[in-house]
Amino acid sequence: MTDVAILDTLQPHAPVELIWKAHIFFPFHPNGMTFKSLNENGKVTDEWTVFSVGGGALAEEGHDKGATPDIYNMSRMSEILYWCERTGRNYWEYVQQCEDEDIWDYLAEVWKTMKESIERGLDQEGVLPGPLNLRRKASTYYIKAKGYKDNLRSRGLVFSYALAVSEENASGGKIVTAPTCGSCGVVPAVLYHLQKSRDFSDTRILRALCHSRINRKYRKAQRIYFRSRSRLSGRSRSCMLHGICCCQPIVWRKSCTNRICCRDGIGASPWHDL
User: Fold this and answer.
1) pTM of the predicted protein model
2) 142 and 160 in contact (C-beta within 8 Å)?
């Protein structure tokens, strides 16, 4: 889809040629691309090398365009849990305390985009773009899942929701890269199913989204920054992100059911659930 996006954007303004050079390896990051502008005589007038570093974020060598100062004054989960116990507050209230007021508008936009990508994906049929001629399957799985018995219906619906978002991603639709484009269907699917099956309000879902920085391990690997405002995205060490995308919904499910920072001494422990 990268080539499609580039051609759609630049071709209306000037002729575009894409040249694949698999033998070139950039030390800064393997996912690099160099843009060159040429005049009418074919001479290079300017060039720009940019890297896709994960989750839709771009960076230049020596300068991370997506970098944002950390605004959280506690860096360990034990400190945050102690703060919750001492103050009687929940984790989302700590996030609210550290963030600007527009955090809720931003999370509302994230959640709205997640829901819309599921609903569009469930309505679409036909073949995905590209030479493989893969048929969309989300709507079929959704219809089948609705007819399953109770013990299978829940899993079938979650699968159809996740597939719907993945197919929207594959067709160039608008998605939330959480934590990556490749695993963008897991988080929306779980939260959407929780809202549908448990009748959770949008407010409860937004509070659950605040737990994206629930654990220092995930924060180091994923580094989600709400303040970037451009996307909810994974940032680095992509080999860990697909495992993280499975841990996040567990944490969010516990948040929705008030099982995080509770007074019986049980904190968030997604590894136990896995």
Assistant:
1) 0.72
2) yes
Q: Where are the alpha helices (DSSP H) in the chain?
A: 2-10, 77-87, 91-98, 103-123, 138-146, 150-170, 186-198, 202-209, 216-222, 241-256, 270-273
- CA 188 to CA 111: how far, in whole Å? 8
Three-state DSSP state, 221: helix
- In whole angstroms, give the CA distance from residue 224 to residue 12: 35
Using alpha carbons, select from 131, 140, 175, 106 the residue that is nearest to residue 4. Answer: 131
How would you list the strands of the sheet with 32-38, edge to edge?
Answer: 32-38, 44-54, 57-59
Spatial contact of 126 and 111, defined as CB atoms under 8 Å apart: no
Give the pLDDT mean for 22-47. Answer: 91
Asked if 250 and 208 touch (Cβ cutoff 8 Å), the reply is: no
For residue 247, name the pLDDT band (cuts at 50, 70, 90): low
- Of 45-49, 89-93, 178-182, where does the model show the most confidence? 45-49
CA neighbor of 119 nearest in space, from 165, 155, 157? 165
- For residue 63, what is the DSSP state? B
Dist CA 2 CA 5 (whole Å): 5
CA count, 13 A, side-chain hemisphere, 98: 17
Please classify residue 14 by burial: count the beta carbons closer than 10 Å to its beta carbon, then call 0-12 exposed, 13-18 middle and 19+ buried: exposed
Per residue in 161-210, pLDDT tens? 999 999 999 988 888 877 777 788 998 999 999 999 999 999 999 998 88
Residue indicated by tokens 């691309």: 33
Instruction: Compute the residue count for the chain.
Output: 274
pLDDT number for residue 217: 35
